[in-house]
Design brief:
globular; three-stranded antiparallel β-sheet; eight-stranded mixed β-sheet
Length: 207
């Protein structure tokens, strides 16, 4: 009896180790069920909410098209953050019509995806810019890759592997359309922020 219990204990331990090593390889799929609530046809971006600095922040644009994570200054202030926290950024970014965008600096913040449970993503270096935008934050390619996020633009869904399974984070189509309407009423130079190519954020070496 003691031998049987020992074998069972070893099997459970081995299974636990396997699960911990293998959770990142879980298959991620999308189906017709994921279209529930989506108004079709559509050409909407994925706009959702995340937890930043322990605060729920809405109007987050998930964008795989560029290389910088951007926080707009109005969001920076709303989070109760102070300019003294910002570190210097020597690069340049440009908006619509190649207009330069004022950069306040960079800072590193904890980000978590919340889909009923809170799943912590890697800490993110945000480039803080001072310009008009209907969004609060733009989450871009590096963070999505590091978190192994898989996006279905047509379903307006993002899914990612965790030790607890595959959580899902759904985009808010109504908010996305509201942001679009707001953006087209802004001055032409403020409609879009894109990093200068080739774009690479050189983060400070000190924490």
């Amino acid at each position: 009896m003691l031998y049987v219990r020992k074998v069972k204990h070893q099997n459970r331990a081995q299974k636990r180790k396997f699960d911990e090593a293998d959770w990142k390889n879980q298959p991620i799929t999308f189906s017709l069920v994921d279209f529930d609530g989506v108004v079709m046809p559509h050409n909407d971006p994925l706009v959702t909410s995340v937890i930043v600095n322990n605060c729920k922040v809405q109007r987050i644009l998930v964008d795989i098209g560029s290389a910088l994570d951007i926080m707009y200054y109005h969001c920076f202030k709303s989070l109760g953050l102070y300019p003294v926290l910002l570190q210097k950024y020597d690069g340049s970014i440009y908006g619509f019509n190649n207009q330069p965008v004022p950069v306040e600096g960079v800072l590193k913040l904890n980000v978590a995806f919340d889909s009923g449970r809170t799943y912590v993503a890697p800490s993110v270096w945000f480039l803080v810019v001072k310009m008009a935008s209907s969004f609060n934050i733009i989450i871009r390619r590096p963070t999505l890759i590091e978190t192994q996020v898989v996006i279905s633009q047509s379903h307006l869904y993002m899914k990612f592997p965790t030790p607890m399974g595959i959580p899902t984070l759904k985009g808010n189509q109504k908010v996305a359309r509201h942001c679009y309407i707001t953006s087209i009423t802004q001055p032409q130079k403020d409609k879009q922020v894109t990093p200068q190519e080739p774009a690479q954020l050189e983060v400070p070496t000190t924490q």
